[in-house]
């Protein structure tokens, strides 16, 4: 995962990884909730918490996720997968 230099892709990939391991949501679900803090996402992505927060806010502005305290509510898993794969750039 460290080969992903783009912090947005790293955060998206990490959220998908953690969802797969922790949420129990089926892979075909359109949305999922990840109840972890940004510090954990940052540690797994090898990024600072501040950089991770900026990237999560970008995902939120794009409508891919909604953020709350210790919660990432992924509203569009397909879009998150596209971001992680580098197929969907966000501004």
Name the descriptors.
single chain; 91 residues; alpha+beta; Arc Repressor Mutant, subunit A; 4 helices
Task: Describe it.
By secondary structure, this protein is of the alpha+beta class. It has a single domain (7-85), classed as Orthogonal Bundle (Arc Repressor Mutant, subunit A), CATH 1.10.10. It contains four helices and three strands. The protein has helices at 7-23, 38-45, 49-61, 77-85; strands at 32-34, 65-68, 71-74. Helix 1 (7-23) packs across helix 2 (38-45) and helix 2 (38-45) crosses helix 3. The longest helix has 17 residues, at 7-23. The model has no long low-confidence stretch (mean pLDDT 91).
Question: What's the structural blueprint in terms of helices and strands?
Answer:
Blueprint: H1 7-23, E1 32-34, H2 38-45, H3 49-61, E2 65-68, E3 71-74, H4 77-85
Antiparallel strand pairs: 1-3, 2-3
Helix pairs in contact: 1-2, 1-3, 1-4, 2-3
Q: Count structural domains.
A: 1
CATH superfamily: Winged helix-like DNA-binding domain superfamily/Winged helix DNA-binding domain
> Order of helices and strands, N to C?
HEHHEEH
- In total, the number of strands is 3
The largest sheet, given as strand count, sense and whether it forms a barrel, is: 3 strands, antiparallel
Strand content: 5-15%
Q: Architecture, CATH level 2?
A: Orthogonal Bundle
Give, in spatial order, the strands making up the sheet with the most strands.
Answer: 1-3-2
Structural class, by secondary structure, is alpha+beta
Low-confidence stretches: none
Shape: globular
Distance from N terminus to C terminus (CA atoms, Å) equals 22 Å
Rg, nearest Å: 11 Å
Write the CATH fold name: Arc Repressor Mutant, subunit A
How many alpha or pi helices? 4
CATH hierarchy, class: Mainly Alpha
Helix content: 40-55%
